[in-house]
Amino acid sequence: MAQTEDMQALLDIRNLTVNLLRSGAPVDVLQDVSFSIQAGRVVAVVGESGCGKSITASSIVGLLPPSMQIASGQISFDGEDLVGASERRLRQLRAKSMAMVFQDPMTSLNPLMTIGRQLQEAAIMAFGCSTEKADEIALSMLQKVGIPDAVSRLQEYPHSLSGGMRQRVMIAMALCRKPKLLIADEPTTALDVTIQLQILRLLADLQAELSLTILIITHNLGVVAELADDVVVMYAGKVVESGGVDEILKTPKHPYTRALLAATPRFAIGQPPERIAFKEIKGTVPELGKRGPGCRFEARCPASEPGCAASAPETVRITASHIVACRSREMLQ
Amino acid sequence: MNAASFDPLAKQDIGAPQVPALDVRGLSVDIATSRGVLNAVRGIDLKIRSGETLALVGESGCGKSTVAKAITGLHAVTNGSAHICGHEVTALSRRQWRPLRALVQMIFQDPFASLNPRKRIGSILSETMRVNGVPKQQAMQRSAELLERVGLPKTALRSFPHEFSGGQRQRIGIARALALQPRLIVCDEPVSALDVSVQGQIVNLLMDLQKTENVAYLFISHDLSVVQQISDQIAVMYLGRIVEAGSREEIWSAPKHPYTRALIDSVPSLDRRRKDLSLRPYLAGDLPSPYNPPSGCAFRTRCAKAQAICSDIRPELQSAGSKHLVACHFSD
Ligand SMILES: Nc1ncnc2c1ncn2[C@@H]1O[C@H](COP(=O)(O)OP(=O)(O)OP(=O)(O)O)[C@@H](O)[C@H]1O
Ligand SMILES: [Mg+2]
Q1: Which ranges of B14-84 would DSSP assign to H, the alpha helix?
Q2: Is B229:A275 a contact under the CB 8 Å cutoff?
Q3: Is residue B323 in some structural domain?
Q4: Which of A98, A256, B139, B161 lies 20 to 30 Å (CA to CA) from residue B5?
């Protein structure tokens, strides 16, 4: 089930460090981030606001904000090095091989263009095909993502669609490119739960039908559980733990992963939950530039030991797929 | 809390404990928009006992926030009444509202937008007290107490909002809401913008404050995982109407409206995996346009149980057990 290092990965990120350049010394936004994605799998990157999930995605597709820079590390995609790739090559890859879907579809849809035109453009950019062929692709993708009356929808503008429908259009636009990798950054966060479930089902169906490889970014562990094969847990710019979905959710080793799981409420119909206090994680995430040399969770960690604040923990391999960055022996058992 | 030194309500009748903190009857709110009249709230009843929490849940656009605005005087009411601690508040002028401001306060979703970025926390907190006639010195001292009460250091008085994280800003918003010792706080999605670990902190703080301050909450949320923790009563709204209401235990152990059931079932679960997704029951389609709601039961267009009667006759909210109301022809 879980990934191992031996297989040739579709995406492999090794020791990626990204710096924010600002007056004074640069500060790291990502430090030593490593994980890989095997073709055909759904990998979730999970963590709280500001931990660097979106910046990880931006690094992959070559769209870092101008104030940021890859300081060291490798990103290889389908055997190709992306860190040294030209802007032109990255643009090509974004048009065809790596497609992105964001939390707010309106930021990537053009409000002045019909849905049909936008889908058509995506297909032409990816394949250089005729407009007739592109229209054909556009219609079939719109149908594939479950938009009712797809033919008439092609003539409509984004604003006339609901949030859920817009997200389906974004997914259709991504599929028009037949991408090798679909990166979805919080694709359901802005949606109501009932619509979120529709979109999760859609992604699962597409994954099964097209053997899509998906990198999904989310802060919601429930979404991780329902969709992912593999999970990468990030905290304050670092990967603290990664592994198969059951390894992370059932036998988490890192105190942060455990705390996050404990803070996530569980419930089901038929069992009125006890009205007890939430398990909170005390304190706050250390800010950019105020992150010491040691483990970044140290100040909030129930298992911290002498030494945790002084130097970063080594990564420990628990199984072929399960990796954790924590020095507490007790945790690792 | 130092109530002896500060009591803006000393001369006000805040009502005996048995007077509900909030009593809403037949509340309707129509909103005139460029697309026509929107019946955002269509005759709802709500009651919150002193010191208790009613959670109002439903999807975006169902009218939850309009209810909040209507009972806090931020939106005109078309029909019906709302009593806060026995005071009718639906047709008051700004001036008439002023003495009642102490009774009801609001906490908003976006803690940043709701705090003036150019003001220090000290003046943000003391402002409402000053307006209500509390001397400056006393207001500042009380502000410091409030900060401690919500878990922030006194030194925060001199800081500006941008110096705080989202969770800390929400604590400041809560401190501000508590300043006048309200009997009711309307919380409109107070934790939806926060991370899970911080959500827990804020929900715990709200629950803790409720015990010590005996304040009632109208807790508006689309997030059932938060609601399950904090509520005493739950009311579920769909297209401007309450479709189910009852005690927290009742709603959770035996939801009777298909919509409530779908809402609970839709929350992603740590115990399910991708292979389960295609087998899960789910609600198809979108919320219908509130400008043109379906006839009869507004939920019928997404309901698996819908029959002919559902488009002909709108089901009334009816008793379904001692602490439970449901509006459905085919309730469970
Ligand atoms: N354009 C930018 N300029 C400067 N700093 C930035 C910029 N974008 C992000 N950052 C900072 O980089 C860090 C990582 O941000 P990132 O957007 O990757 O977080 P995230 O995990 O995606 O969070 P969220 O869940 O809120 O989307 C944060 O500290 C953030 O403030
Ligand atoms: Mg992000």
Answers
A1: 64-71
A2: yes
A3: yes
A4: B161
CA dihedral angle for residue B118, residue B124, residue B126, residue B132, rounded to 10 degrees: 100
**Do B273 and A269 lie within an 8 Å CB cutoff?**
no
* Interface contact B110, partner A, CB < 8 A: no
Q: Tell me the ipTM for this assembly.
A: 0.89
- Residue numbers of the domain that contains B271: 255-332
Task: Select from A225, A261, A276 the Cβ nearest to the Cβ of B272.
Answer: A225
User: Which positions ≥6 away from B138 have C-beta within 8 Å?
Assistant: B5, B6, B129
Which chain A residues are within 8 Å of B234, Cβ to Cβ?
none
Residues with CB under 6 A from ligand 1: A 20, 29, 47, 49-55, 65, 67, 219, 288
Strands A98-101 and A181-185: parallel
Residue B95 belongs to a domain: no
Residue of B nearest to A162 (CA): B286
- Helices vs. strands in chain B: H and E counts, helices first: 11, 12
> Taking Cα atoms as reference points, which of B148, B151, B153, B100 lies closest to residue B128?
B100
Distance from CA of B265 to the nearest CA of A (A): 8
Question: DSSP label at B260?
Answer: H
Residue B14 pLDDT more than 60? Answer: no
Please state the domain count of chain B. Answer: 1
3-state secondary structure of B258: helix
Smallest CA separation from ligand 1 atom 16, residue: A52
Token pair for B296: 């009869």
Q: At A88, phi and psi to the nearest 5?
A: -65, -45
CA of A54 to the centre of ligand 2 (A): 4
Do the Cβ atoms of B233 and B53 come closer than 8 Å? yes
Smallest CA–CA distance, residue A250 to chain B, in Å, is: 9
Chain A residues whose beta carbon lies within 8 Å of the beta carbon of residue B280? 197, 201
A229 and A207 Cβ atoms separated by less than 8 Å: no
> Are A272 and B265 an interchain contact pair (Cβ–Cβ within 8 Å)?
no
Q: What is the mean pLDDT of residues B186-191?
A: 92
Does the pLDDT at position A25 exceed 90?
no
Tell if the CB–CB gap between A280 and B201 is shorter than 8 Å. Answer: yes
Per-residue pLDDT of B92-137, as tens digits, reads 988 899 889 889 999 988 777 889 999 999 999 999 899 888 999 9
Q: CB-based contact (8 Å) between B222 and chain A?
A: yes
**pLDDT, mean over chain A:** 91
Ligand closest to the CA atom of residue B195: 1
Q: Which long-range contacts (CB under 8 A, 24 or more apart) does B224-228 make?
A: B224/A193, B224/A267, B224/B57, B224/B263, B224/B264, B224/B267, B225/A264, B225/A265, B225/A267, B225/B267, B226/A265, B226/B191, B226/B199, B227/B55, B227/B57, B228/A265, B228/A267, B228/A273, B228/B252
Domain-embedded: residue B264: yes
Could you give the CA distance from residue B241 to residue B243 in angstroms, rounded to a whole number?
6
Distance from C-alpha of A225 to C-alpha of B138, rounded to nearest angstrom: 52
Shortest Cα distance, chain B CAs vs residue A35, angstroms? 21
C-alpha separations of B81 from A302, A315, B28, B49, B56 in Å: 51, 62, 9, 17, 18
Domain assignment present for residue B111? The answer is no
User: Which chain B residues have a beta carbon less than 8 Å from that of A263?
Assistant: 196-197, 199-200
Phi/psi at A136 (5° precision): -65, -45
